[in-house]
Structures are given as C-alpha cells and as structure tokens.
C-alpha cells in the first residue's frame, strides 16, 4: 500500500552499535531508535471486551468542487485541486490512462522529480504567473495549497471522509469536545474541528508544517480559535499527557511510515505504533467519541490495524471499523484509487 513517501529516508543498514563505535562512525538511525525504545515502559493493554469489528469498510472520496481525481494510470494521476489541475506520479496506478494525452499535457503543474519515492523532485508550472501557493477549500474552509519539493500539495483528499465524520460527531455532541490531532501536518483536521466547535490540540514535529498550519488558520479566519499548536514528537507529547492525566474525546493519528521528532526522536511505524496507540487509548476521556488511525506506505493490512485497534480499545464498548480509503475517478465507469488503510474506534 503506497500513498505518500516518508518525509525522511530511514537508514536501512543495521550494524551493531559497538562495531559502529569501533569504526568511529555515528550510530545509525535504527540503533538510536532501538535505544530510545529500550528505555520505554511496555505498552499498557487495558482489559475488557474487544469492541465489535466491522470490516472491510471502504470509504470513498467522490469528485467534488474542491477536488477531483480526473484520470489515473501508467504510474501517474491527474487531479483537480481547486482551480488547478496537477499531474503527479502514482505507484498504485498500474492500469492505462483514459483521458487524451493533450489533457494530461495541459496540466497547470506537473511534478517532474524522479519517481523514486525518496527523490526531492521539482515542479513544472504551466502558468508563468503561478506562485508557490494557491487558494483551496475544504468543505467551505479556505486554506493554501503549496507546491512542495516532496510532491505533496498540503492536503491528502482521502482524509476528508474522516473529517466529515468527525465534524458531524462534534456538532451532534451538544457539549464541549476536546480533539487531539497527532501528526497534524497543514492543520486541516484541526481547523475543521475548531470550526465545528471543538477545542483542539495540534501536534507536529515539523516547524515548517506548524507554520503552514498557522498560515492556514489565518486564511480560514480561525487564528483566534481554541487551537494549541505544538511542535513536538507525537510519542513524547502523548507520554506527557498520560502523566498529566489530560484527556481527549477524539484522537486522530495519521502517522508517516518514518519521521523524526524535533529533538532527533525517530518514528518508525511498525515499531512505534502499538506503543503510541495504547498511550492514545489511555488519554481518551470517559465519554470519548472516536480514535482514528490511518496508515499508508506500509506492508500491512486493514485486518492488522483492526486487531491492533481492537486490543487497544478493549473495554470501551462501541465498534472498530477498518478498511481502506479510496478515491473514485471522475466520469463514467470510474476506477478506484486506493490511498491508505484505516482503523477507527467509534462510540455507538
Ligand atoms: C502525512 S502528514 C499527516 C497528514 C495530515 N493528517 C493530513 O491529512 O492533513 C505526516 C506528518 O507527520 C509529521 N511527523 C513526522 N514525524 C513526526 C513525529 N515523530 N512526531 C510528530 N509529527 C511527526 C510530519 O511533519 C508531517 O506533517
């Protein structure tokens, strides 16, 4: 399952630390990550009944005025983001393209970096006047799209199905709702939650991502909304929230496969997710509404995420829904582009 590239390249070599030190080299990323994990307590698996499981649940993103998948195939996708059409590599699209070549060639922007997942890459912009950013909307909320060197544009449209589900629940709650958005990126989930009336804590390890999210808050006129913007490693932050006894009604996790915290912390999804998910379970309030996990670019299945979520959420009642987030192409006889796996616990 590939959706997005990791933000940093993991060090795949795993020499033993002593050997590395003898050779006078710095410890590898894997070694540092292993050492940090050794100092951690074991994950806490709370007892109780496992919530009911509903799987597979396939959540579709349909073409809409903010976003559409116009065509896909031959390792690429052609999308409309607001007023711009954008052409990017897409490893999942192993089928043929349907639109004429002229439509693809007329894209307003094309990512021309190597198709290698780790490539820094560049963009070719069709319009000379096209700047680095452009106005976009998500469910009526204005924000900025941006051409990044990592081929991303500041939004992952497939997430919109989770966001709509979340904001409906926040509005229906009829009480104050506290949301924790981990790996929050450009802040759309945080802004939509705040607009729906929630009090939000947004955590991301990247100063640049936090700056972009705050810029989006300004564009959306939500600069005074109750959002705490926190630049910190997600695991470190949640560990502290457990110690402080703070609680949230909704926790969102959209972790990359690999990432770094601001103090050099290493995030590796396979090794760190169970620990972070059990911590997230511990900070759910007694009247919590949902715990939402998305995963991409991992060798996994929605059944593994479901089993993990089910164990982490024992004793909560409700149900676990697991499956894939897919984007439907625009037009007749559409193909479905799979973007990520998800698992969410929801109160019923
Ligand atoms: C793919 S984005 C999440 C997308 C977001 N949920 C959305 O749909 O808009 C992953 C984010 O995780 C952040 N990140 C990577 N490692 C992290 C860590 N150790 N702690 C916190 N955030 C991290 C990155 O800076 C990036 O903004």
Automatic annotation (TrEMBL):
<keyword id="KW-0949">S-adenosyl-L-methionine</keyword>
<keyword id="KW-0808">Transferase</keyword>
<keyword id="KW-0489">Methyltransferase</keyword>
<dbReference type="GO" id="GO:0032259">
    <property type="term" value="P:methylation"/>
</dbReference>
<protein>
    <submittedName>
        <fullName>23S rRNA (Cytosine1962-C5)-methyltransferase</fullName>
    </submittedName>
</protein>
<feature type="compositionally biased region" description="Basic and acidic residues">
    <location>
        <begin position="8"/>
        <end position="41"/>
    </location>
</feature>
<dbReference type="InterPro" id="IPR019614">
    <property type="entry name" value="SAM-dep_methyl-trfase"/>
</dbReference>
<dbReference type="GO" id="GO:0008168">
    <property type="term" value="F:methyltransferase activity"/>
</dbReference>
<dbReference type="Pfam" id="PF10672">
    <property type="entry name" value="Methyltrans_SAM"/>
</dbReference>
<dbReference type="InterPro" id="IPR029063">
    <property type="entry name" value="SAM-dependent_MTases_sf"/>
</dbReference>
<feature type="region of interest" description="Disordered">
    <location>
        <begin position="1"/>
        <end position="47"/>
    </location>
</feature>
<feature type="domain" description="S-adenosylmethionine-dependent methyltransferase">
    <location>
        <begin position="131"/>
        <end position="262"/>
    </location>
</feature>
<dbReference type="InterPro" id="IPR013780">
    <property type="entry name" value="Glyco_hydro_b"/>
</dbReference>
């Amino acid at each position: 399952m590939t959706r997005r590239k990791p933000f940093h390249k993991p060090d795949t070599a795993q020499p033993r630390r002593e050997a590395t030190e003898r050779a006078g080299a710095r410890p590898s990323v894997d070694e540092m990550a292993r050492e940090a994990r050794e100092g951690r307590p074991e994950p806490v698996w709370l007892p109780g009944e496992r919530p009911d499981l509903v799987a597979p649940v396939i959540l579709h993103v349909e073409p809409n005025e903010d976003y559409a998948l116009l065509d896909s195939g031959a390792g690429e996708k052609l999308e409309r983001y607001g007023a711009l059409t954008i052409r990017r590599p897409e490893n999942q699209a192993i089928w043929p393209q349907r639109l004429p070549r002229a439509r693809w060639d007329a894209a307003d922007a094309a990512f021309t970096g190597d198709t290698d997942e780790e490539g820094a890459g560049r963009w070719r912009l069709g319009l000379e006047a096209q700047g680095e950013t452009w106005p976009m909307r998500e469910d009526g909320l204005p924000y900025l799209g941006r051409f990044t060197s990592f081929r991303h544009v500041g939004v992952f449209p497939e997430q919109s199905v989770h966001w709509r589900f979340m904001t409906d629940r926040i509005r229906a709650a009829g009480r104050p709702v506290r949301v924790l958005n981990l790996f929050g990126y450009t802040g759309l989930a945080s802004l939509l939650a705040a607009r729906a009336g929630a009090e939000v804590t947004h955590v991301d390890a990247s100063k640049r991502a936090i700056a972009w999210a705050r810029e989006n808050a300004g564009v959306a006129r939500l600069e005074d909304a109750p959002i705490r913007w926190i630049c910190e490693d997600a695991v470190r932050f949640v560990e502290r929230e457990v110690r402080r006894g703070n609680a949230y009604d909704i926790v969102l996790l959209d972790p990359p496969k690999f990432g770094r915290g601001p103090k050099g912390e290493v995030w590796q999804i396979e090794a760190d997710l169970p620990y972070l998910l059990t911590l997230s379970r511990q900070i759910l309030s007694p009247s919590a509404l949902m715990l939402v996990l998305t995963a991409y670019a991992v060798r996994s299945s929605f059944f593994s995420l479901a089993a993990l979520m089910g164990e982490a959420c024992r004793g909560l009642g409700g149900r676990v829904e697991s499956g894939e987030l897919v984007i439907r192409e625009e037009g007749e006889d559409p193909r479905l582009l799979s973007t990520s796996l998800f698992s969410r616990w929801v109160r019923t």
